[in-house]
Amino acid sequence: MQRLPNPEILLRPIIRREAQSTSALEGTYTTFNEVLEADFIEEDRQSAEQREVHNYVRATELAMELLTKYPICRTVLGQLQHAMVRGTEGETYDAGDIRKRQVMIGPKHRPIEESRFVPPPNGPILEEMFSDWEKWVNAEDQFPIIIKLALAHYQFETMHPYADGNGRVGRLVALLQLIQAGVLKLPILNISPWLEENRSQYMDGLLSVTKSGKFDDWISFFSEAVSVQAQAGVEKVSLLIRFRDEIMTDVRGGGYSGAAVQIAESIIGYPVIDVTTARVLTGKTFETTNQAIRKLVSMGYLREITGRSRNRLFVCFRVLEIIR
Description:
By secondary structure, this protein is an all-alpha fold. It is built from 14 helices and three strands.
């Protein structure tokens, strides 16, 4: 990361990859390409799935801003939950605050007796539980951070404090805990792809703790998720930096400079890009930027995917292959 002039550029695709999987865990499915393309589609033209996944991206960006001013708390998480459900079916009268109704986890439109799990009722009990959780998450104690992540995630999911979006908020909280503890500077860890691959164990593990009161297996499982994905993240970042060095060397070796070099430098953060976005990155004219993109297309680093003559999108498939 230190080899990059702007390390935060890697956040763009990494956050969007997390958005894809954390949403899939809640039954909202999109391809990674669709997630990236949503940045270039007006909200009212996005599919319901794209809007929901894109909301997670915005919530994560908001979280980074809020975490510079506040600890992990009710105010912060309420704003994040509201950001995640904005413009979706989940944006109900109690969005952004502790739920005002009973919820259940299980098949929709079925009686509560058939639910998989019934969280605590709304009202004073839930309010007190959330307050206790909030204090514990921010308390300085002897728990290793990985264990605290696992315990906090279980407690949050068991409370199910919001009417919708609890899973997505809860998984984002794990990243915020790592940042607040100084383990991460940026939310570059993708936990959700591994949890998605091991979805049954993830859901069953949460329920098992509730039934048995035994945390060992759950802590082991969640710790493995963090460990495996941390290692995978290091490898992916290394591959992205190596690819960036390769393309920069190739572009400069081809005698190109200016806009072509600037776009090449940013391509790992913008694997899907249009000329307008590239203009912002380069500060050049439309024609100069367009010529630079054509050069990268001719070199095989970008490919146009719309087939249109206007509002075209260009993709760097090498970056997509690494991040997937």
